[in-house]
Amino acid sequence: MKKEQVVNCQFSVCLILPLPQNVIDYLLDDGTLVVSGSDHNTQQTHTYNSDSNAEEDIQWSDDETTTTVTAPEFPEFNSKVLEAINALGGRVFPKLNWSAPRLVLRKWSELIPGGEFRCFVKENKLIAISQRDYTQYYQHILKQEEQICHAIQEFFSQHIQYKFPDEDFVFDVYRDSQDGPAFRYTTSEVTVQPSPCLSYRIPRDFVDLSAGEDAYKLIDFLKL
Question: Which domain of life is it from (predicted)?
């Protein structure tokens, strides 16, 4: 894989927030303090007491020692993050970009695994399509194979083909609508079909009761 190919696949249709140096230092720090502004307490207090039930081989001082550490605050960066989240609809998916340190926020969407497909392109031609979640069987894919292929091919031709920098690549696509009207028809002149006159006949259950051919139906009828 070439460096240019990696750059071509980095996030682009999203909001990218450069990380300030103080945020980078906080992320690289070994501490576990929660950033101020959350629902957690902004201060963490550590108390060491010689009367506690500690290990016998640990030596403690006679005086109680209390250390209070204040969590860091990033008001400007926090405001930019909130603005970006609101701009994307209030729900986002955060992820570090390959060109880190930059913070990438993408709009969150509830996706059905049966609607995701992986597409393979060779020399700017769509050569293969597969379901992305290959561990499950989805009945609608079998029934709508032709419609799914046609929809993906049309989407690829209109929005992706000859527009991506590379000629050979793989992309994932999501087909939002899976439900369609059921269409059934007779495929042959010789078919097993009931006679139109059968709709005027007496129901089979009444025939069995009157003839006594089904004793269980008679017992059920008497119970009613």
Answer: Eukaryota
